Write a sequence for this structure.
């Protein structure tokens, strides 16, 4: 049957070959607009708090979002199960009704599990910040959403598995599928606000957040939309995800009795990453569109570099070629020299291998500038843990805030820098009153996928 069909197709192609070819030279070339894209709104839900201001203030004040993991926070009926997890620390979003807490009553419900709810909350903050609440059909159709994630709602899958074991499949919620799909975060945001532009969701593990911003910026550049609500979201602090990352030997296990010290990027004693959760969402906008409506402009998104390691399922390649390519491509696209960059937010997750490889790649790209004392480098994961699919977006926002405030955020717990880093370019505390003109942020994911973003101070109009 298959062979028969192939025969027919081949035959058609042969006979129709002349008709299939066409002289396109008589037509104008496809139009590829090159528009500038700026950031006009920010929204955050992080382990440091729900909101941009509270997350940033606590980050600069050397606070941490990392805590001991309890059986209760994992919703384990049998507390003994907790002891089966070698890693018992996590960076949880503070939930409650105090200022800076995530309001569960307002955002969680039968159709919105945590990863969707975090994205909704961060998107709302970003849109309010950007003062973008269009009512016109044309504006709504020119506004899109691109929110990615790493895993989706594993907890729902876990609970559904209990129903299988108990032979109670009829009790499965009709919202099971729309609760677990990663693109439902972007779907919900578009439904809530009526945005009919592109609706997209990147899934590139821990690079999802960075790829989302990069892809969304391209959509604006290319003319698919004038405004994009872009970001990443994650809520995978559940027993199954914890067990999975433990089995992959990715998580910190030596600091269960001293949780606040467990996430320590670039430090000699680092022993794995700490699971985090949350969301970061920005409003990206075509430059002239932002000027015309008098929007506040935080930064220009200027460079987006991507690469693949083509090396290993979970480990980075030793010499850091993938990271090198992502960074140099982002700089090239931005039209910048390495010496133009004043701050790097490293991907560094606090794993023994990953941090070394990234530091090496940074040295290869930035050469002497990396040791000049003029390039500030930090990993904010010391305070937030690793937010997986949200990390790239959250860290892009920290970069934009670094640019905006002239402050480079600290690397928490970096007490004894690994000698390979020379101790030159890792601030232990926030450096204030810096002149920050350009920033770069890295994100790398399982599968060997890499993304780097470059932001610069707003264009002078
Ligand atoms: C659930 O909450 C989301 C916000 O996270 C909201 O957009 C949605 O309308 C709510 N759905 C229901 C059924 O209440």
């Amino acid at each position: 049957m298959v062979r028969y069909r192939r025969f027919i197709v081949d035959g058609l192609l042969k006979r129709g070959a002349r008709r299939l070819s066409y002289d396109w030279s008589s037509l104008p070339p496809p139009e590829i607009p090159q528009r500038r894209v700026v950031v006009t709104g920010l929204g955050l839900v992080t382990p440091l708090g729900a909101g941009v201001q509270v997350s940033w203030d606590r980050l600069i004040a050397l606070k941490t979002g990392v805590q001991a993991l309890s059986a209760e926070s994992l919703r384990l009926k049998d507390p003994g199960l907790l002891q089966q997890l070698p890693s018992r620390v996590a960076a949880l979003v503070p939930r409650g009704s105090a200022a800076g807490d995530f309001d569960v009553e307002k955002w969680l419900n039968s159709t919105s599990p945590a990863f969707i709810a975090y994205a909704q909350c961060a998107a709302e903050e970003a849109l309010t910040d950007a003062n973008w609440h269009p009512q016109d059909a044309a504006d709504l159709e020119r506004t899109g959403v691109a929110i990615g994630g790493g895993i989706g709602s594993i907890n729902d899958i876990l609970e559904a598995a209990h129903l299988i074991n108990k032979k109670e499949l009829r009790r499965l919620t009709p919202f099971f599928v729309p609760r677990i799909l990663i693109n439902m975060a972007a779907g919900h945001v578009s439904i809530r606000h009526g945005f009919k532009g592109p609706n997209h969701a990147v899934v590139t593990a821990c690079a999802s957040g960075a790829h989302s911003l990069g892809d969304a910026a391209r959509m604006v550049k290319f003319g698919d939309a004038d405004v994009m609500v872009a970001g990443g979201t994650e809520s995978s602090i559940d027993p199954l995800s914890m067990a999975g990352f433990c089995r992959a030997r990715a998580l910190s296990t030596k600091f269960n009795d001293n949780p606040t010290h467990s996430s320590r990027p670039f430090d000699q004693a680092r022993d794995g990453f700490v699971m985090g959760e949350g969301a970061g969402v920005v409003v990206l906008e075509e430059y002239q569109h932002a000027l015309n409506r008098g929007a506040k402009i935080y930064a220009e998104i200027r460079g987006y570099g991507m690469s693949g390691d083509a090396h290993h399922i979970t480990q980075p390649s030793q010499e850091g070629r993938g990271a090198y390519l992502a960074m140099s491509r982002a700089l090239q696209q931005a039209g910048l020299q390495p010496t133009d960059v004043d701050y790097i937010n490293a991907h560094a997750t606090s794993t023994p291998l990953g941090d070394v490889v990234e530091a090496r790649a940074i040295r290869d790209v930035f050469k002497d500038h990396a040791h000049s004392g003029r390039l500030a480098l930090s990993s904010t994961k010391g305070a937030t843990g690793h937010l997986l699919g949200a990390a790239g977006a959250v860290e892009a926002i920290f970069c934009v805030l670094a640019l905006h405030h002239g402050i480079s955020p600290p690397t928490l717990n970096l007490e004894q820098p690994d000698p390979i880093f020379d101790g030159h370019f890792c601030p232990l505390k926030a450096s204030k009153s810096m002149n920050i003109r350009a920033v770069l942020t890295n994100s790398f994911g399982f599968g060997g996928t890499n993304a780097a973003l470059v932001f610069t101070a707003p264009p002078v109009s």
Remarks:
- DSSP finds 15 helices and 14 strands in the chain.
- Residues 107, 109-112, 117, 120, 188, 192 surround 2-acetamido-2-deoxy-beta-D-glucopyranose (CB under 6 Å).
- The mean pLDDT is 93.
